[in-house]
Amino acid sequence: MPEYESVIGLETHIQLNTRSKIFCGCKADSWEDDPNVNICPICAGLPGVLPTLNKSVVEKAVLLALAVQADNILPISYLARKNYFYPDLPKGYQISQYAEPLARGGRLIIPSADGEDRVVNIEKLHIEEDAGKTVHQNGKRLIDFNRCGVPLVEMVTAPDIRSADDAAAYLIQLRRLLRWLGISEADMERGQLRCDANVSIRILGEDSLNTKTEIKNINSIENVRAAIKTEVKRQIQTVEAGQTIEAWTLGWDEDTETLRKMRSKETEADYRYFREPDLLPIRIDEEWLLEIKSSLPELPLARQKRFTLDYGLPDYDAAILTEERSLSSYFEATVKLSAGDPKTISNWVMNDVLRLIKEKKISAGGLRLIPKYLAEIIEIVESGMITRGTGKELLVNVEDKGKTPLELVELEGLAQVSDEETLKSMAMTIVDQNPKQVATYKAGKATILGWFVGQLMRATKGRADAKIVQSIFQELLDNDGDLGS
């Protein structure tokens, strides 16, 4: 039996986070709104209306094109009518782009743990409007037009992907990039990032492109992975049975984890594209392009690599800290405000700050625990003024109360009990009050030493050095209740 490889290309539809729709002033984000409340004659497709292109849609799309290193951002591109007849497409056509898209070429890098980064080439990137949403309810098919006219960027890859896992990795990197640029929330469950997968197979070592099927509108990264694996397996079984792969459009049923045939796959001729007569060409001159380019931030993979080089962070830390842009900026700001070790700061951010962010359901940029305060907490922990445990509590208190770390240390008496004479006196009192536990220790059960340490730590509200406390108790119990001078 020959060995096969899969040949996969992805078409992603990215909902841009503009306030209004692409061709009218209606609210674009209507996820939580009632059906059919964010519509007007333009997005509802009523006769005689004229669309007006939203400038912000073009700027966000161009920013994405720059981020994926597009080979050619066209100075003049055109909008086109894509004709098809679905119940949720009120005009009977979609305004999209065809022969002259906004940008051609580009690439997205998929990092790999083995150091062999993979490159997925981008064939084209264009803007278009979304269609409405069909809802099946109580045996009826209902239409919600809120989504009509919501701005999308469609990005089409070359058939460069060779496995379902790589397809999932591509989507993870794309989602990271979109959120980093601030142009889309890219939440697949809300339809803000949708994926169609074109899948074919061939004998390993061949370079031909065989008949492909298209899996439409897969709504999560894990479903993309599962759907592609299922389709590759089906195609191999079909070929091995001596049958022919047919060009079908398939739907993925996540409940049963099965594929179903929806219709024969359309070709470009079926859509009867022609230039949109009601909209002018999109002209991107050099001045506008430079203005958009000036807002392009340092990209996540570049920042991740810089964190390993400039701060000596392990690859794992750098990857976590650059998963989200505001978190990476928070970490770097803390490093610049601190004289401490970047790895120590990384540990605090990855463990304590990230936990706080998840609990509060906010971004790092929304914390009242600003980088200056985190740097102060780390400094006073490292100086021995407070324990690590108290530092973790202080971090939460700063966020909740909005006061500076040093203010809270003074107000709440959090400074570490470090005077050994005080600790020795407290330890002797605990020993005198607990003769049974002393007898247990004398009988050879050394583990009860931890119980004594715990009593003193509780008495100091965790503000004593546990190692010093253990040493005091060990000396005290081993010398029949007397401490040497």
Summarize the structure.
With 485 residues, this protein is an alpha+beta fold. The protein contains 16 helices and 17 strands.
Structural class: alpha+beta
* Main sheet characteristics: 10 strands, mixed
What's the oligomerization state? Answer: single chain
- Compute the number of structural domains: 3
Number of helices: 16
Helix percentage: 25-40%
The amount of beta strand, in percent, is 15-25%
Q: Can you tell me the residue ranges where pLDDT is under 50 for at least 5 consecutive residues?
A: none
Total strands? 17
Distance between the ends: 83 Å
**Rg calc:** 31 Å
- The average pLDDT value, as a whole number, equals 91
Name the overall outline: elongated
Please characterize this protein's 3D structure.
- There is one protein chain.
- Helices cover 40% and strands 19% of the residues.
- The protein is of the alpha+beta class.
- The protein folds into three domains: 4-292, no CATH class; 300-411, no CATH class; 420-478, Orthogonal Bundle (Arc Repressor Mutant, subunit A), CATH 1.10.10.
- Strands 1, 2, 6, 7, 8, 11, 12, 13, 14 and 15 form a ten-stranded mixed beta sheet that branches. Strands 5-4-16 form a three-stranded antiparallel beta sheet, with no helix packed on it. A two-stranded antiparallel sheet has the order 3-17.
- The relative contact order is 0.09.
Name its key features:
19% strand, single chain, alpha+beta, Arc Repressor Mutant, subunit A, elongated, 17 strands, 485 residues
